[in-house]
């Protein structure tokens, strides 16, 4: 096999790119929505507007230097990582930096400006989850996506009603694909208007460019331990939790199915609707309290699994960083390597698997992600100009029929990859 030529990163300076649009249009709109949804004091509003001005016409500055991030707000390794990455880009225009770095730094700066980290020094570096949750600038939007008329709980009731009519072998496939299409409802994107977004809640069909549903389900039910790297809260998280419940229910006493499942959540709010550990636990409680009997039963089972240790919810600073999966911290790499199969959710994590580089569509994920520490299933609706495993001719036809096929969320993939069988490899620089 000939050596792989590693392409450059996707940059926010790429002309007419989705990355350029995301920084110049989407990020300022996110700040505007945060201001509208929260009752901030004038100084906090001004700090957020300063961030908009910086993104639109300024250069990258460090939130580690402006006093809004107390030294204890970040873990030591987390802070060092940010120092290194910011130093490599400080002073550059926001429209001339690596796209994933631009997105991760934007959310760190938004949290700092909104007061999310306020007072952490007085807490002597300890984490006070309830207080942090109260300061989550995206909390109003997250609540609406969970308990609204067409939100996650309503979607859960619809899913459970469908499950009751299915045979055992069809349920897991249905839930996995529901988890995929629930990923369309990402609050950090605005490509769908509200009516179209709500209709997605009742659509569990779509164009799967890669469909490894059968291989993925087989790998998950044969796993001694499974892990899920979560993406969005709200409807998508409800789908993820119902799938988790079904997988654990198949192995009540050592039968087929994972003996335990670990859910990996964000340490802090991220990408508007990404699930933190507290979001995850709160959603489990909301399921258990739901008026739908089947949904409530699933929630109570999940609560029981939390108490018994069969279900674990963990967070790590890496999930909020600008690092790619090729730079997993040793402790997290060891954690992931201990899982038989890992479900990797969402577009951003797919980009991190591929270092957010301009790979040709015909490349294979098997080759590019062989470094990953365990076999995994990538579950992703497409919202960025990056995909592999699509032959050249198929990509040409897609561009002719739908020029925005890579970014409009109409297509997705469920891709099983038998990684973890070789030594860790970092893509050459």
Explain what you see.
The chain is of the alpha/beta class. It folds into two domains: 18-130, Transcription Elongation Factor S-II, Chain A (Up-down Bundle); 139-417, 3-Layer(aba) Sandwich (Rossmann fold). The protein is built from 17 helices and seven strands. A seven-stranded mixed beta sheet has the order 1-7-6-5-2-3-4, with helices on both faces. Helix 11 (235-249) links the parallel strand 2 and strand 3. The protein is globular, with a radius of gyration of 21 Å. The two termini are 19 Å apart.
CATH topology value of the largest domain: Rossmann fold
What value does the average pLDDT take?
89
Biggest beta sheet attributes? 7 strands, mixed
Assign the structural class, choosing from mainly alpha, mainly beta, alpha/beta, alpha+beta, or little secondary structure.
Answer: alpha/beta
Kindly, what is the distance between the CA atoms of the first and last residues, rounded to a whole number of angstroms? Answer: 19 Å
Percent strand equals 5-15%
Helix fraction by DSSP (H/I, runs of at least 4) = 40-55%
Please name the fourth-level CATH homologous superfamily of the largest domain: Uncharacterised protein PF01937, DUF89, domain 3
Please give the oligomerization state of what you see.
Answer: single chain
Shape: globular
- The level-1 CATH class of the largest domain: Alpha Beta
Major β-sheet strand ordering: 1-7-6-5-2-3-4
Which regions contain 5 or more consecutive residues with pLDDT less than 50?
Answer: 121-126, 187-205, 422-426
The number of helices is 17
């Amino acid at each position: 096999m000939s050596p792989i030529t590693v392409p450059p990163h996707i940059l926010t300076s790429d002309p007419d790119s989705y990355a350029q649009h995301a920084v110049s249009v989407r990020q300022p709109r996110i700040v505007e929505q945060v201001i509208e949804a929260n009752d901030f004091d004038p100084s906090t509003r001004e700090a957020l507007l300063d961030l908009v001005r910086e993104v639109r016409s300024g250069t990258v500055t460090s939130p580690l230097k402006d006093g809004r991030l107390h030294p204890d707000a970040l873990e030591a390794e987390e802070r060092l990582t940010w120092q290194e990455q910011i130093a490599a880009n400080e002073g550059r225009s926001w429209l001339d930096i690596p796209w994933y770095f631009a997105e991760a730094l934007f959310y760190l700066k938004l949290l700092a400006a909104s007061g999310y980290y306020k007072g952490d020094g007085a807490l002597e570096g300890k984490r006070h989850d309830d207080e942090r949750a109260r300061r989550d600038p995206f909390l109003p939007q997250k609540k609406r996506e969970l308990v609204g008329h067409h939100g996650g709980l309503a979607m859960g009731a619809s899913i459970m009603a469908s499950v009751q009519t299915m045979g055992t072998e069809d349920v897991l496939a249905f839930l996995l694909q529901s988890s995929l299409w629930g990923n369309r409802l990402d609050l950090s994107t605005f490509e769908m208007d509200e009516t179209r977004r709500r209709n997605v809640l009742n659509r569990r069909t779509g164009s799967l460019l890669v469909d490894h549903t059968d291989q993925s389900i087989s790998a998950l039910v044969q796993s001694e331990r499974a892990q899920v790297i979560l993406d969005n809260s709200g409807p998508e998280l409800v789908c993820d939790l119902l799938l988790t419940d079904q997988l654990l229910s198949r192995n009540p006493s050592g039968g087929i199915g994972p003996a335990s499942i670990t859910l990996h959540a964000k340490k802090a709010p991220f990408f508007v609707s990404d699930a933190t550990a507290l979001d995850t636990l709160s959603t489990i409680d909301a399921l258990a309290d739901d008026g739908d009997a089947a949904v409530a039963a699933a929630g109570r089972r999940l609560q029981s699994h939390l108490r018994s240790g069969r279900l674990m919810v963990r967070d790590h600073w890496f999930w909020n960083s600008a690092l790619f999966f090729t730079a997993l911290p040793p402790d997290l790499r060891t954690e992931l390597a201990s899982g038989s199969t890992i479900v990797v959710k969402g577009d951003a994590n797919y980009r991190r698997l591929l270092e957010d580089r301009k790979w040709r569509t015909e490349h294979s994920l098997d080759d590019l992600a062989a470094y990953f520490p365990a076999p995994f299933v990538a579950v992703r609706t497409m919202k960025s100009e990056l995909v592999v495993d699509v032959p050249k001719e198929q990509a040409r036809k897609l561009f002719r029929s739908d020029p925005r096929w890579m970014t409009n969320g109409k297509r997705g993939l469920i891709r099983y990859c038998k990684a973890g069988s070789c030594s860790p490899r970092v893509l050459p620089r």
